[in-house]
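Students often ask why we bother encoding 3D structure as a string. The short answer is that it lets us treat folding as translation between two languages. Here is a chain of 370 residues written in the first language.
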Amino acid sequence: MPNSLEFKKAPPLVKNMEAAQPSDDSQGLLVRNITKRFGDVPALKDVDLAVRTGEFFTLLGPSGCGKTTLLRIIAGLELPDSGTVRLAGADITALPAAKRQVNTVFQSYALFPHLNIFENVAFGLRSRKFSGEVVDRRVNRRLEMLGLEEMRSRFPHQLSGGQKQRVALARALVNEPEILLLDEPMSALDARLRAQVQVDLRRLQRKLKKTFILVTHDQSEALVCSDRLAVMRGGRIIQLGTPEEVYETPKNSYVAQFLGAANLITAEREADGIRTPIGFLQLEKTPPWQKGTVAIRPEWIQIAESRPAVNGIRACVTETIYRGTNVDLWLDPGPLRIRTNRHRRLKPGDQVWLELLPGRLVPLDEVDNE
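And here it is in the second language, the structure alphabet:
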């Protein structure tokens, strides 16, 4: 039995951002003006958020940014100091966690060690006094969906990390919540299994057509899983959009560096471009500042055979890092970092031409509400 989420006839993984978007956002989750302090420490600062019904939404940020506190307020495990939480048009701000159509999968999985897998999954239904027939039907359906049929009699200590995670998911899904909250559920998995589970979790969400909200600090996890994501910092959401929007057009240097690697180049605007320490560059978009910063991802800088007509930079390789599927190069002037899968071997001291496409240079707005 593989240690990944499994279900019958999984749909193909696609990046259709419209598939999970209903016509009426009021039927989803609406968070308005949420503020929360722990003593003198502000955890959330006037946070607004709308999550559409049936989408996979991710709260992304480092430890201490407020993402888990926001998740706990949505779950009913914390009360905000001010603001409201609405689900399907109803105000649930003061509603106890047990009465919300919301279930949470925690980082620790929180399985009961004295109960077998079937009874772990059935626990919520039994506590709500469902009949034995309903319990059997719903639990067996979730165990089958997640490839756990043959493990129903095992106990948590007999399972791998990936299997425990599937049991925790089954236990949450068996209650048929409107929203499933995922509090860094993959952090205990090894890198190979984590990558597989990310894809499987995304497929599971598409199959169920339920709203999933994931909390993570892992940028690759957010890019793989999400319809939309919100980058958080200092108790605020500083950028929200599809993975493509946030990755390709970061608002500021913090987002650019947190969501993947980025070259940050200081610049001064001129009549037909920008003047930078590595030379004059043309842009597709006019910067909103006279002096500021532009960003470009390492994989978007191209190595050219000869001097490019636009934005050509002569550079010297200073360091190479082999990563299997690609090679990272550091070059002067800059220093610039580029990522290439070219078979041509470059070594420190080699001279190359670089092409920085105007459409890939993103002017940044350094106002980030901090």
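Translate back mentally: The domain at 263-363 is CATH 2.40.50.100 (OB fold (Dihydrolipoamide Acetyltransferase, E2P)). Keep this in mind for the problem set.
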